[in-house]
What we know:
The chain is α/β, with parallel strands linked by helices. Helices cover 49% and strands 15% of the residues. It contains 9 helices and 7 strands, in the order βαβαβαβααβαβαβαα. It has helices spanning 12-22, 35-48, 66-77, 93-98, 100-128, 149-169, 201-213, 224-233, 237-240, and strands at residues 3-7, 27-32, 52-57, 82-85, 132-136, 175-181, 218-221. Strands 3-2-1-4-5-6-7 form a 7-stranded parallel beta sheet, with helices on both faces. Helix 1 packs parallel to helix 2 (35-48). The chain starts with a strand and ends in a 5-residue tail after the last helix. The model has no long low-confidence stretch (mean pLDDT 96).
Amino acid sequence: MKNIIIFGATSAIAEEVAKLFAIDKANFYLIARDASKLAVIKQDLNVRGASSVCTVIFDANRFELHEKLMEAAFQSLGNIDIILIAHGSLPNQYLCQTDSNKAIEELNTNGLSVISLLTHAAARMELQKSGNIAVITSVAGDRGRQSNYVYGAAKGMISIFLQGLSQRLSKSGVHVLDIKPGFVDTPMTSEFTKGVLWAKPGSIAVKIKKKISKNRSFSYTPAFWFVIMTLVKFIPKFIYDKLKL
Length: 245
């Protein structure tokens, strides 16, 4: 029976991950900003077999509350097996490049708020000398593209942070997983035309649970994105600049 904290618990991928662990009778501490969605998810997880489900409302950009929030979660569950950070937004790139305040807001939501939570989580996990920290980033963080470089910059920042954090915590028996999904069919991407590269949240969740169980530190999800992004990263700049990406 695992004790699990999920930030951004109402996101499509996080919800599917929670469903998988509910079957194993996990205890949950779910944190998100939408109270009504949290209530529905709580009821669903209880039906699926969860041993306990606690829900808390939070605004990711209230950095000053992060430490107390983390403390409350640990006090509620005790020893933590998994912390999953899955919150985020999909910014309007045009607004971000024309309004610096909007750009900063999105960088806070998608980047700095995650780093703040990770800092508090790492300190506690390091003391207990066990557990897994998993963070959903994105393939968008591998190379800046004109269509979403504010979002990509935030995700890339987290991935670099996770690399160093993983190295640090490995000495304490804590495993850090950077999950890099490609295109995922969620409410956040509802306006996008879907194609063969798009995955469903449920399939991503299965892979996340598997990677956590194997204590992996890095995962493109689905795996074919490793090939795609390796090619993208090695496109020469003089060619890359001419592409409409």
